[in-house]
Amino acid sequence: MSKGNPPTTRRSFRVIFKIIKYGLAMILTFLISFALTLVIKTSELDNYADNVEQVGNVPEIKTLFDEQNNRPFDPVKYSEDKAVESVQEEIPRREEEKLGVLATLNRMTSIKPAVDEKIKTIPHYVTIDKMPKLLLQAVISVEDTRFYNHKGFDIFGIARAVLVNVEAGEIQEGASTITQQTVKNLFLTSDQTFTRKAEELILSMNMEKDFDKDKILEIYLNSIYFGSNYYGIYDAAQGYFGKEPNELTIAECAMLAGLPNAPSVYSPYVDFHLAKQRQLVVIDAMEKFGAISKSEAENARIEEIILAH
Question: CA-CA distance, 207 to 102, in Å (whole number)?
Fold first, then answer.
């Protein structure tokens, strides 16, 4: 009899135990989400989401000009409704990596080796010390204000999304944190199914266990899609502004931070007005959460944006 069998059996039991543990954690998360949905009024959840996600009306700007056609920017003409109704080019679709059952389970319970391998394949990888601090703050302010406090998922965001999805009978709204978006960018497709969301949640919990927050944010900014076929912060900074990431201004950081929300809609090469509108939302969020001062925000709002092409 092989002496390697007992250790193999023990490893199998450990893997099964981890799957059960994370499965129970996921179920508990959704149960808590439903309970919160019943207790918290819808209006309160909406107000919370508005404050956290900074999705609101754009302030009137009277001195802003579109460099491309020298016409005054009209925030009324380009409302949030128009942004939603715009024809949206989908993010270039990636084929999800085909893994066997055991390989999938192994990745879900020990994600670090898989992430390290993915990082090696990212061209022009930029470490976080080479990124402007204001870029990091801009992304957190508009994408995930509780990033440094949660453990991979945001219970309040999930509660609100559960309410919307249960009423619709299907997944219509997500509540993804930066960690969840990172694992999705690295390993998953954008299919909105409960199975995929469950795998995303488990992977996110393991990501938080194996990597610190700064590393997760670094990986996110190197893997996220910024529109116009630019993946990662290096290509986005070069493609949109012809600059190294550490040379970006506050206004440029804010514009880039606003793109992942709807990259093919907000790309300044697709619609400069919508890109500017989204940038103003990010600047407002940065000012509200103390990343920049009032005077810095005012200057960023009217700073001339010069595109590379």
Answer: 19
Residue 94 is given by DSSP the state P
**3-state class (DSSP) for residue 65:** strand
Task: Return the amino acid letter for 156.
Answer: F
Instruction: Show the CA angle centred on residue 232, arms to residues 285 and 209, nearest 5°.
Output: 75
C-alpha dihedral, 214 to 105 to 23 to 8, nearest 10°? -110
Residue 20 tokens, joined: 């059960």
Domain ranges across the chain = 5-302
C-alpha–C-alpha distance, residues 220 and 14, integer Å: 30
Q: How many CB atoms lie within 10 A of CB 37?
A: 20
Non-local CB neighbours of 152 within 8 Å, separated by 6+ positions? 177, 179, 180, 201, 204, 205, 207, 208
The answer to whether 108 and 249 are in contact (CB under 8 A) is: no
CATH class, range 5-302: mainly alpha
What backbone torsions phi and psi does residue 70 show, to the nearest 5 degrees?
A: 60, 30
Which residues are paired to 231 by β-bridges? 225
CA dihedral 45, 46, 49, 50 (to 10 degrees): -150
Q: Would you say residue 70 has pLDDT above 70?
A: no
Query: Can you give the pTM of this predicted structure?
Result: 0.68
Rg (CA), the chain: 21
d(CA 114, CA 111): 5
Closest CA to 219 of 198, 239, 199, 204: 204
Closest CA to 53 of 193, 218, 171, 178: 178
pLDDT in tens, 9-30: 666 666 666 666 656 655 655 5
Side-chain half-sphere exposure of 242, counting CA atoms within 13 A: 5
Percent of the chain with pLDDT over 90: 46
Contact 88, 264 (CB under 8 A): yes
